[in-house]
Design goal:
It comes from Luteolibacter algae. The chain contains nine helices and ten strands. By secondary structure, it is α/β, with parallel strands linked by helices. It folds into two domains: about 250 residues, 3-Layer(aba) Sandwich (Rossmann fold); about 35 residues, no CATH class.
Length: about 300
């Protein structure tokens, strides 16, 4: 397939994603998004006289001195969010044993959340990363802007195939000057999750969306097969007919998932697991319902 044909095929996939995401947002998603993600801070509105029960820390002492009676600062909730999708496009992101690869699933998630954000009047940005940050598109509004983001997720070709959540977190902490909502979209098959995610979550509201494939959770009984690590290129022959090997693999992957979940819980990071062989909406709905209940 020529490069021109590849680009045309990619654009067709982007258009399909746009249509699907718009329909899902219109039919069942935007209301939950609105109630789950509101503004990240408070904007100064006006002054008014102090009333019993007002917080002392909101007293403006300069105005109080001029007026000879206490005045407090009034605030309004800052409605507009800066939403950033941090999408993992490392070697493992291109794996998929069923309907979608993890990268395609990530692009679908970014499209759904992105159109929800735009409908809510929010700005949307993108960080693509693997072993290092590859591309940063600052938050902005507009459908063309979002479609470019989705296209970049699908087309990115990292030279270094590894995964570094740490490098992604450090980049976002340095680059985002005001508090933002960060969706970290990855399989989280990486080392050093604890401190980087903790630092990011302290500065920005962070949501971890773990993309996974069923074959990564449990090996099929397929006899002798060659397994290749897509991030390091390491190859090994394994006998998947061995029930002890399949059990050991299943336990290993379960520990890895539990380790990531422990990190998320420790730092108050909301999370959802999204599978390549399942509809994304139920898991996203559950995530937003949990957040909506807490806000109420």
């Amino acid at each position: 397939m020529s490069e021109e044909e590849q680009i045309e095929e990619m654009m067709a996939r982007v258009r399909q994603l746009e249509l699907k995401a718009r329909r899902l947002v219109r039919e069942s998603f935007s209301g939950e998004y609105l109630s789950s993600f509101r503004g990240q801070g408070l904007d100064f509105d006006d002054f008014r006289e102090y009333q019993h029960g007002d917080e002392v820390r909101f007293i403006d002492w300069n105005v109080t001195a001029r007026m000879n009676e206490p005045f407090v600062r009034k605030f309004r909730e800052e409605r507009e969010l800066s939403v950033v999708m941090a999408v993992d496009v490392s070697g493992s992101a291109d794996f998929g044993s069923k309907h979608l690869s993890k990268r395609e699933l990530s692009a679908e998630i970014a499209a759904i959340l992105g159109f929800s954000a735009l409908q809510n009047g929010d700005q949307v940005g993108l960080l693509i990363f693997s072993e290092e940050p590859l591309m940063f598109i600052p938050p902005a509004k507009g459908t063309k802007h979002l479609l470019r983001m989705i296209r970049e997720v699908l087309m990115a070709k990292p030279e270094k195939k590894g995964t570094s959540i740490e490098e992604a977190c450090n980049f976002l902490i340095k680059s985002l000057k005001r508090k933002a909502l960060v969706f970290m979209i990855s399989d989280f098959h990486a080392e050093n999750l604890d401190k980087p995610l903790g630092k990011l979550a302290r500065k920005h509201e962070t949501v971890a969306l773990r993309v996974n494939d069923p074959l990564e959770e449990e090996l099929s009984n397929a006899g002798r097969v060659v397994l290749i690590d897509p991030e390091t290129g390491f190859e090994t022959m394994v006998n998947t007919s061995n029930p002890n090997l399949r059990m050991a693999y299943k336990k290993l992957m379960k520990r890895q998932a539990e380790g990531a979940a422990t990190v998320f819980k420790k730092h108050g990071i909301d999370t959802a697991t999204l599978m390549t062989d399942h509809d994304t909406l139920p898991a996203l709905h559950q995530l937003l319902k949990r957040r909506g209940r807490r806000r109420k």
